[in-house]
Amino acid sequence: YTLTADQQKSLDEIKGDMEKPEIMDRLLCGDVGFGKTEVAFRCAFKAILAGKQVALLCPTTLLARQHYEVALERFANFGVKIAVFSRLVPAATQTKNIKLIAEGKIDLVIGTHRLLSKDFKFRDLGLLIVDEEQRFGVEQKERIKEIKKNVDVLTLSATPIPRTLQMSLVGIRPLSQINTAPESRMPIQTY
Questions:
Q1: Three-state SS for 58?
Q2: pTM (2 decimals)?
Q3: Cα–Cα distances in angstroms (integers) from residue 133 to residues 20, 37, 84, 164, in the given order
Q4: pLDDT tens-digit profile of 38-64?
Q5: Residue 157 pairs with which residues in a beta bridge?
Q6: What does 105-159 look like in DSSP terms, one character per residue?
Q7: Pairwise CA distance, residues 97 & 121, whole Å
């Protein structure tokens, strides 16, 4: 995909943060369909190439499934091992994949709050991508805070909550913005 100027600028800012010795905690804002996921996948690929595991946390089963299907398509030619976790994935499959994650045999894990369970042990988690953080509850946000201490975090949001946005505006949390839509984006129609 050809990136828009905003996507490229955001990607450069995020990759720059990922290369710094301190832990990244960046917010990426953009309207629905403006390419936040594309930028996130490119950052995930950078982390995977560096030998790290990546977790993509989504608030809903549907969103986890969509991200999983797009990831399978995008990473098909690169040998990236991907797993999805949600209430729709059979328990036996989840148990098998949790073992593979702990062994470092799965590179990209996409899922709902199930990823925040205590039984999840990553061998070498390098990047946590949180999609629509404001849709998680207090308990999940506390677990995300625990994980954030040692891992680069990229938060994607079309509508950041006022506290998150304020943290970015006062400089506590770096902010990247995507303000222009990709050429082929169709406008949202609400009925």
A1: coil
A2: 0.88
A3: 24, 14, 18, 9
A4: 999 999 999 999 999 999 999 999 999
A5: 29
A6: --SEEEESGGGGSTT---SSEEEEEEESGGGS-HHHHHHHHHHHTTSEEEEEESS
A7: 11
